[in-house]
């Protein structure tokens, strides 16, 4: 007999930045709405961090199903953009998804896919499930994604060739220097794939976005205004954010939290460039000097440098006698031992940002990191690297007043140590950063309110849950 507890399936595309918010959304549907949740993940992307994340006890409430790994080596050029590879992996995983759903005794009532899973929406139709897209980014990004493919000529001629801002009805324009890589080369497979995603998103029954009403009121209005972007999106948009990890650390890293316990309140700046961000050796040297000269306490997540070439060559990494990796200045670890922690590869970020000793975040502005910082009232130094991060950085600095953006030297094309020292001091201690620090606290309260019972994001997710419950009820009654 079919149980009346709604069952929802979520499909996560590869990459921790995609998986983490999908897991969180799943958990929220369990804890707030008592739903049964199945999460489809792609086995091919198994990384240590992903495995630890999936195995952690917090996942007990979720049924995680690994889809068979997709062989893509013959389907995509080895040098293709990472996003192209992700969409091809997603495409190749569709038969596995279809079989997995067909084999389920109690079929889910709805399928929620993320940005790169839109080709799975017809699979939901095949099984008569409701279908949603969860954009783990903001409404502005959703706006450009659904709008740009409907005005390809303007994107090509005015935005890319003439480098004019792309006007999106009702939203802030996107400056050329902030634009998405996907638009830059019409001949690259990425261009077509990305445009397709933009056209497919409005095929869903609803679009969930990791933002909240008070963060992007005008953009959200334009997405639902029939005269503006509503014409393009056509479907309800549900701002349900911030959707961020709220339970224990991803990895056991208690020494980090112990160390933080010993530091004064809001005295530590956390430096991390997301799950995949890397910098050049020259840039890392400047960060090391900038942090040291700022005289602030810090936690820095380091990865071996990758130079700015398409093949992304890794350096052979050695160490100084004090253990300093050879891509950092000699003796750096010894000189900063009392003030800083250098963590290789990965850190328990949400726990760090939630710690009262943390007062600032040098971030690549990935949207998960941004929301984690915002929800903890931590101001940012915005240092975008790829994807929609430049748009995020612009929003954070120019619209929200939550961040400061370091200037790149026009000659060396890197952020030099003096500049970093200046922005770190500004965000952490200097008087001229007080407004940003105050704004971070204000936004934290606004975000918490949105998530609380009766708040805008809580209500939005309840609407989605209600829709799914109604559809299940209709099915049970019709059976
Ligand atoms: N993250 C983490 N530890 C790290 C680096 C990243 O826990 O050392 C988590 C971070 O908290 C966030 C996600 O990985 O939830 C990164 O997502 P984001 O959108 O910020 O950036 P992406 O990695 O997708 O570029």
From TrEMBL:
- Keyword Protease recorded: no
**Entries under Gene3D superfamilies matching the protein:** Glycogen Phosphorylase B (3.40.50.2000)
- Write the record's keywords in alphabetical order, separated by commas: Glycosyltransferase, Transferase
Q: Pfam families, per this entry?
A: UDPGT
**A GO molecular function for this record?**
coniferyl-alcohol glucosyltransferase activity
Presence of keyword Glycosyltransferase: yes
UniProt record similarity statement = Belongs to the UDP-glycosyltransferase family.
- Name of protein: Glycosyltransferase
Q: What is the lineage of its organism?
A: Eukaryota, Viridiplantae, Streptophyta, Embryophyta, Tracheophyta
């Amino acid at each position: 007999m079919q149980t009346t507890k709604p069952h929802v399936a979520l499909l996560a595309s590869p990459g921790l930045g995609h998986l983490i918010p999908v897991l969180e959304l799943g958990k929220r549907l369990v804890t707030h709405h008592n739903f049964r949740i199945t999460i489809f993940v792609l086995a091919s992307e198994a990384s240590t961090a992903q495995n630890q994340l999936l195995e952690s006890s917090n996942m007990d409430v979720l049924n995680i199903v690994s889809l068979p790994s997709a062989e893509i080596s013959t389907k995509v050029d080895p040098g293709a953009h990472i996003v192209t590879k992700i969409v091809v992996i997603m495409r190749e995983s569709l038969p596995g998804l279809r079989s997995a759903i067909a084999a389920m005794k109690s079929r889910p009532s709805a399928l929620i896919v993320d940005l790169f899973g839109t080709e799975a929406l017809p699979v939901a139709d095949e099984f008569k499930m409701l279908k949603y897209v969860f954009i783990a980014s903001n409404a502005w990004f959703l706006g450009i994604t659904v709008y740009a493919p409907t005005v390809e000529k303007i994107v090509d001629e005015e935005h890319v060739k003439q480098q004019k801002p792309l006007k999106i009805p009702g939203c802030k324009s996107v400056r050329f220097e902030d634009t998405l890589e996907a638009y830059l080369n019409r001949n690259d497979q990425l261009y077509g794939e990305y445009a397709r995603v933009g056209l497919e998103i409005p095929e869903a029954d609803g679009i969930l976005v990791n933002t909240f009403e008070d963060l992007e009121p005008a953009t959200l209005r334009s997405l639902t205004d029939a005269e503006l972007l509503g014409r393009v999106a056509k479907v309800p948009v549900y701002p349900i954010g911030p959707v961020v990890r709220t339970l224990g650390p991803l990895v056991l890293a208690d020494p980090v939290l112990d160390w933080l316990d010993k530091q004064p309140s809001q005295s530590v700046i956390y430096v991390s460039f997301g799950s995949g961000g890397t910098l050049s050796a020259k840039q890392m040297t400047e960060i090391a000097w900038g942090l040291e000269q700022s005289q602030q306490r810090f936690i820095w997540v380091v990865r071996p440098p990758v130079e700015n070439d398409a093949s992304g060559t890794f350096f052979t990494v050695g160490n100084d006698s004090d253990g300093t990796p050879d891509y950092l200045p000699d003796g750096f670890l010894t000189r900063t031992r009392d003030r800083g922690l250098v963590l290789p590869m990965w850190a328990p970020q949400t726990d760090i940002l939630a710690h009262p000793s943390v007062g600032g975040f040098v971030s690549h502005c990935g949207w998960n990191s941004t929301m984690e910082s915002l929800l903890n009232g931590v101001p940012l130094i915005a240092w975008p690297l790829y994807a929609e991060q430049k748009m995020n950085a612009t929003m954070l600095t120019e619209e929200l007043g939550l961040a400061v953006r370091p200037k790149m030297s026009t000659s060396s094309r890197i952020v030099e140590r003096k500049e970093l020292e200046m922005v770190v001091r500004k965000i952490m201690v200097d008087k001229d950063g007080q407004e940003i620090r105050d704004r971070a606290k204000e936004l934290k309260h606004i975000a918490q309110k949105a998530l609380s019972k009766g708040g805008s994001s809580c209500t939005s997710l309840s609407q989605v849950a209600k829709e799914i419950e109604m559809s299940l009820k209709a099915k049970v009654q019709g059976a």
